[in-house]
Structure formats: structure tokens, C-alpha cells
């Protein structure tokens, strides 16, 4: 029997919007993870909404605007029910898929927001994130420009992705930050040292991206070189290739054990763990697993109702410390790389 239960809701930070406790990552529908079926992706968006998912995550960098364009009919059809989250700061020069250009300066932000509003076909972006930090621009200056966008009605709430605790504090002093979006999963826990405590103290929510370890924790692939198509972004990530991938696959054993005990999937245990970090750390946590399949949205949202005991959490505790290989080839691209 299909479970049509809607997920619970939570406020995204002290001053942020209310959203479902799990969002939907839409990146893979247009970018990074190989070919997609547009019809199935659209069905995924609709199924997510039926199940209470309201936070939809995109960025101008996902397919150079393609992902925002793809989502705009869905957002238009459900404007009052969805929280539209997009990002600026990152671009990939045409023909150079492994290069990233990062900009946080005022003229760049001004043109980026106008372009996103146009592609999304909305009057206001509900949550506008700085996608990556350009260390050549003081973060206070960047957030001051983002705050002007709020005053002008182009943006409702502000977010930051992959910032350090110090960057978050400096930004929050200029304008309230609703959410930090950073990688957080059983394989990637570096933000727990400084970023998460700072977010809790400031009343900022955490939006964990890649909560399924880009699919690896759900067992959707074992080795990026062998299982994924040419051009798939995960083939550039050290932990998913060669000997690292084989070593990391062995780390799934305790997750599998708990999945068997609960009669659920590997991915559901991985998501339940992320979801439960809200209680562990005492702040709102809204993971945004990415999928292009309605059945997986059903599976992923059902994970919000799984409770892990302290003993079960303990069994999963050693995993992250044993992962072989970094999460990005260039770690300066992340908050941990700058801490
Ligand atoms: N701020 C940033 O820098 C940043 C970086 C990366 C991602 N993001 C955002 O975070 C979102 C989520 O991250 P992500 O997509 O990188 O990683 P993820 O959510 O950890 O994993 C997505 C992968 O897992 C697969 N998957 C999803 N549900 C599954 C299930 N129940 N069973 C088996 N496989 C499953 C998906 O395949 P199918 O699609 O084929 O179902 C996809 O390949 C993105 O969509 C994007 O919006 C942000």
C-alpha cells in the first residue's frame, strides 16, 4: 500500500520560512549526474509536493541556468506552496567542465539575481544562497549586497553555502542568515566541529546537501569509474574512485546491519541519521536529498519517520573517520578547506 503521509514541518532558522523537514535537491535533473528523463523528473517534483516537501533546491550553476528554467513551470503552478531556493557565485566556463569560477562582488550578484529571477519566472526568490566564498571579497560586503536585495523585494531570506564558522558569524552580523547549506552525511561530518555549533548559537538552520553521499550511501553506485557515465561529476571526487571506492564500500556494513534490523533501505538509514542530527545538535536540520524518481522521494521522505536509538547512532559513529579520500579534489572549495 502506498504511504501518502506528509512529512512534518520545521522553521528554517529563527527568522526563516517554514518548510517540510526534508527538501528536494533538484540539481541532478539537469546537471552533474548523467542523463535524466524530464517527464520522470517532473513527476518527482509533484510527488514530493504531495508528500509535504516544500523546499526545492537549485542554483544558477546547475547546467548554466538550465535547472532553474526546468523548474520554473513547476514553481509557477505551485507558487504559494513551495519555497524556492537558488544560489549565485559559481560558474563553469563553457568547455571546461572541471574548472569553477567564483565571484561574490556586487556587480556580479546584481546580474546573477536578475538572471535567476527571469529564468525562474518568479517575483521573489524565497531563499538566496551565496554558493561559494570568493576570498577576495569581504563577506560583509557580499552580505550587504544580498541584504539590499531583501529590501528591494527580490529575495526573502538569505543563505550561505560552504562557509566557515567565522564567515557565518561575520555575515550574520550584517543581516540574519536563515540557513547554511553544506555537505553533511555519514561520510562528511567536518562541519560538526565549528559550523554547526555556530549555527546553533546564531539561530541558523542547517540544510545538508548530498545527505546520501551523492548516492554512494544508498548503494546506488559502488565505483564512479566503473558504474557511472563519462562526464558524471562523481568521477572527479577522490572518495568514489579507484581503491578509495572499494575501501569506502566496506564502510557501509553497519548501515546495512541497521537497514536489515529496521526492514528499510540503506539510504533510509543514512537519511534518518542526518535528520536525527537536529536533536543531537539542537538546531533545525532540513536535508535535501537529490532524486529524479518518484519512488525514491517516497522512500526518502519515509526516512523522516525512522528513529535511531543512541546505541544505533553509536554503531554509525566511526564511519566518517574512516572514509578514504576527500569529498572534493580541491578542498579549498569547502569550509573545511579554509578552517
Ligand atoms: N551547495 C552545494 O555546493 C551543493 C553541492 C552538491 C549538491 N547540492 C544540492 O544538494 C542536493 C542533493 O545532493 P546530491 O544530489 O549531490 O547528493 P545526494 O542527495 O546525497 O544523492 C543523490 C544521488 O542519490 C541517488 N538517490 C536518491 N535517492 C535514492 C534512493 N532512495 N536510493 C538510491 N539512490 C538514491 C540519486 O539518483 P537519482 O537521481 O537517479 O534518483 C542521486 O544520484 C543537490 O540536488 C543540490 O540541489 C548543493
From TrEMBL:
Listed Pfam families: Aldo_ket_red
InterPro entries (alphabetical): Aldo-Keto_reductase, NAD(P)_OxRdtase_dom_sf, NADP_OxRdtase_dom
A Gene Ontology molecular function term of the record: oxidoreductase activity
Stretches assigned to the NADP-dependent oxidoreductase domain: 23-317
The UniProt record lists the keyword Nucleus: no
Keywords on record: Oxidoreductase
EC number in record: 1.1.1.-
Name used for this protein in its record: Aldo/keto reductase
Species in which this protein is naturally found: Streptomyces fuscus
Amino acid at each position: 500500500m502506498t504511504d501518502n503521509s506528509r512529512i512534518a514541518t520545521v522553521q528554517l532558522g529563527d527568522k526563516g520560512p517554514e518548510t517540510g523537514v526534508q527538501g528536494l535537491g533538484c540539481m541532478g535533473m539537469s546537471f552533474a549526474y548523467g542523463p535524466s528523463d524530464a517527464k520522470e523528473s517532473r513527476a518527482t517534483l509533484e510527488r514530493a509536493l504531495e508528500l509535504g516537501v516544500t523546499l526545492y533546491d537549485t542554483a544558477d550553476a546547475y547546467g548554466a541556468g538550465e535547472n532553474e528554467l526546468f523548474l520554473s513551470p513547476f514553481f509557477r503552478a505551485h507558487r504559494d506552496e513551495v519555497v524556492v531556493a537558488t544560489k549565485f557565485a559559481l560558474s563553469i566556463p563553457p568547455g571546461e567542465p572541471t574548472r569553477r569560477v567564483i565571484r561574490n562582488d556586487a556587480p556580479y550578484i546584481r546580474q546573477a539575481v536578475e538572471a535567476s529571477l527571469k529564468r525562474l519566472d518568479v517575483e521573489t526568490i524565497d531563499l538566496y544562497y551565496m554558493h561559494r566564498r570568493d576570498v577576495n571579497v569581504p563577506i560583509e560586503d557580499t552580505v550587504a549586497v544580498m541584504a539590499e536585495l531583501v529590501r528591494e523585494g527580490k529575495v526573502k531570506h538569505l543563505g550561505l553555502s560552504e562557509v566557515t564558522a567565522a564567515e557565518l558569524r561575520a555575515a550574520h552580523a550584517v543581516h540574519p542568515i536563515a540557513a547554511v547549506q553544506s555537505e553533511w552525511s555519514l561520510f562528511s561530518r567536518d562541519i560538526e566541529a565549528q559550523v554547526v555549533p555556530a549555527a546553533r548559537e546564531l539561530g541558523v538552520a542547517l540544510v545538508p546537501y548530498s545527505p546520501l553521499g551523492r548516492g554512494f550511501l544508498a548503494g546506488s553506485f559502488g565505483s564512479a569509474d566503473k558504474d557511472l557515465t563519462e562526464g558524471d561529476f562523481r568521477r572527479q571526487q577522490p572518495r568514489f574512485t579507484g581503491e578509495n571506492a572499494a575501501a569506502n564500500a566496506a564502510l557501509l556494513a553497519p548501515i546495512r546491519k541497521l537497514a536489515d534490523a529496521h526492514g528499510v533501505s540503506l539510504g533510509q538509514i543514512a537519511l534518518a541519521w542526518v535528520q536525527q542530527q537536529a536533536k543531537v545538535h539542537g538546531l533545525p536540520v532540513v536535508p535535501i536529498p537529490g532524486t529524479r524518481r518518484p519512488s525514491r522521494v517516497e522512500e526518502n521522505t519515509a526516512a523522516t519517520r525512522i528513529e535511531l536509538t543512541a546505541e544505533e547512532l553509536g554503531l554509525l559513529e566511526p564511519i566518517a573517520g574512516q572514509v578514504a579520500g576527500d569529498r572534493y579534489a580541491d578542498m579549498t572549495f569547502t569550509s573545511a578547506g579554509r578552517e
